[in-house]
Amino acid sequence: MFVTSAFAQESAPAVEGGHTGTEGETHSGTGVPAEAHGMFPPFDPATFPSQLLWLAITFGLFYLFLKKVVMPRVGGIIDVRNDRITQDLDHAARLKGEADAAVAAYEQELAEAKTKANAIGQQANDAAKMEAEAARKKVEAALDKKLGEAEARISSIKANAMKEVGTIAEDTASAIVEALVGGKASKAEIAAAVKSVAR
Amino acid sequence: MAADKVDPIHQFHINKLIPIEIGGYDLSFTNSALFMVATVAVASAFLYLTTSSRSLVPGRLQSVSEMAYEFVGNMLRDAAGTQGMKFFPLVFSLFMFVLVANLLGLFPYFFTVTSHIIVTFGLAALVIGTVVVYGFMKHGLGFLKLFVPHGVPVYLLPLVVLIEVISFVSRPVSLSVRLFANMLAGHITLKVFSGFVVSLSALGTLGIAGSVLPLAMAVALTALELLVAFLQAYVFAVLTCMYLNDALHPGH
């Protein structure tokens, strides 16, 4: 502040008060400022304008570059990937739905085929049973007929035999009567007697 | 020059590389400006080149870029809702700038841009300026409701409003000082322990044996600083999101 006018002219670029002389010297371009007057460098106000300016320039450019170039690109990459993942998940879900439908259709067809097979089996079974029954009935009828014929023959043979038995008995009876009684019995009497005995 | 080697403050000196002086202001291109340019160049190149293939299935580096993008995006959406996404470019560039500046500063002989309070204050002022300007643009005087919480008895109101105003005004200060102090303290500690290694090993055999301890410490601190570099960038971005939320929804 209170420097002589001569000195103030010497340090032309109006250095802020407080640091007198030495500050002026450091500004004259030795390349080692701050060090000379022993101030802690981060608190040296002489460096503030330059640092702020360069910070504004560099950070401003950085901001613009990120905003215009980098962030749309990275955001785009991530969006594309998310879209792709959603798409793939949808695709997978659709395929799964299709597979499920196919499984359901297969199972339904299987069930239908089973019932059809059962029906066919039942039908065949019934048909076979009926056929067997018919065959059995036919055979039985034939057997019955044969049995009847045989029985008829047996009874006729029996009747014939019985008839012959009567004649033999009559002959035998007349012979016995002859031998025992010694007379001849009439044929008709003997036949009646044999008949009464035979009954 | 021998004294410089163990001077932990030396690393924060600003050296003019191209002296520029306009209208009485010293606007020289300094080592600080050089590292701002480097920070922006490295961050831009990384983000630009790793995503240039636009792979559907990302490679390692592309996933790093995408992770950073989604990390900041989710952070902002959680804090400020979908409306806050219009500030995504701002928050993302702040996060990347601070993160890359912090990480670059960890290299030996590199200048740490964020160890200067004026830089962190500039970024914090940008955030608070955005909050104030957008808040008044969107809500008009309704933005002032930010200072009047609901459900406070009338006789307490002056006190509460005063406290709210102070807390709002101190935001840019705390935001900038937190980042600045963390980077400054970390680099000083690192330098001090590394200085011990050099000065101890100058003492002969015993000194070399003894210097193992500060060396191990320096290695451990480097790991810690790596964490701090990321953490402070994260904290800066999270607080930015929360302040932006105030601009969007001032009525608490």
List the helices and strands and how they pair.
The complex is a heterodimer of chains A (199) and B (252).
Chain A (H helix, E strand, L loop, with lengths): L4 H6 L10 H6 L21 H134 L5 H12 L1
Helix pairs in contact in A: 3-4
Chain B lengths: L1 H4 L10 E3 L2 E2 L2 E2 L2 E2 H20 L9 H21 L7 H18 L11 H23 L17 H45 L3 H6 L1 H37 L4
Antiparallel strand pairs in B: 1-4, 2-3
Helix pairs in contact in B: 2-4, 3-4, 3-8, 4-8, 5-6, 5-8, 6-8
Features:
heterodimer; A: 199 residues; mainly alpha; 4 helices; 79% helix; 0% strand; rod-shaped; disordered N terminus; B: 252 residues; two-stranded antiparallel ribbon; two-stranded antiparallel sheet; 8 helices; 4 strands; ATP_synth_F0_asu_AS (chain B)
Mind explaining what this structure looks like?
The complex is a heterodimer of chains A (199) and B (252). Chain A is mainly alpha-helical. Chain A has a domain at 168-198. In chain A, 79% of the residues lie in helices and 0% in strands. Chain A is built from four helices and no strands. Chain A has helices at residues 5-10, 21-26, 48-181, 187-198. The longest helix of chain A has 134 residues, at 48-181. The termini of chain A are far apart. Chain B has 252 residues and is mainly alpha-helical. Chain B has one domain (2-248). Chain B has helices spanning 2-5, 31-50, 60-80, 88-105, 117-139, 157-201, 205-210, 212-248, and strands at 16-18, 21-22, 25-26, 29-30. In chain B, a hairpin with a 2-residue loop joins strand 2 (21-22) and strand 3 (25-26). The radius of gyration of chain B is 22 Å and the shape is globular. Chain B starts with a helix and ends with a helix. The model of chain B has no long low-confidence stretch (mean pLDDT 90). The interface between A and B is large, with 45 and 53 residues.
